[in-house]
Specification:
- The structure is a single chain.
- With 182 residues, this protein is an alpha+beta fold.
- The protein has two domains: 91 residues, Homing Intron 3 (I-Ppo) Encoded Endonuclease, Chain A (Alpha-Beta Complex), CATH 3.90.75.20; 52 residues.
- 42% of the residues lie in helices and 12% in strands.
- It contains six helices and five strands; from the N terminus they run αβββαββαααα.
- It has a three-stranded antiparallel sheet with strand order 1-2-3. A two-stranded antiparallel sheet has the order 4-5.
- Strand 2 and strand 3 form a beta hairpin.
Length: 182
Amino acid sequence: MNAYDLANAGDRFWAKVERGIGCWPWTAGKRNGYGHFNIRTRTGSRTTAQAHRLAYELLVGPIPDGLTIDHLCRNRACVNPDHLEPVTNRENILRGEAPTVRLYRSGLCKRGHPLGDAHRGGGGLRGWCKSCKRAYNAAHRDEQRAYGRSYGVSHREQKAAYWAANRHWINAKRHASQEATL
């Protein structure tokens, strides 16, 4: 459910849209290609909202919880509700054309290893398979050990220092998960 006062935004909102056949480009302010619109909330304060989300809510209805709006036309400035679809964030990312997504769809990791079910899990969308992740960890571990040796610190002492430095974060995380189960 949105917190915007949509009843009083219509005329001002549509004055900033160039309607036609195909995409309806947003003609006012933009950030990273997405249209932005100043609107009042139901409590009376002012906020900035993404234009494509408002267009969807004005013409189609509320955006279901847990979903985001995907531009089927790949035009970030478009507010045509026929070009907008509510999807999960994962689906929205996988529909994109980022290099890591293209690599993920190819079924190969960035070093050419197959990413079948047995090999996935090293980095997901980061383009790593399990064997690449193992190789990276081994190289990183050796590098950390060499760094520690240069200061006369053993790997065991490095691990102990790491856990001591991060104990407060680990304990806070454990405490939060225990409270969630209560």
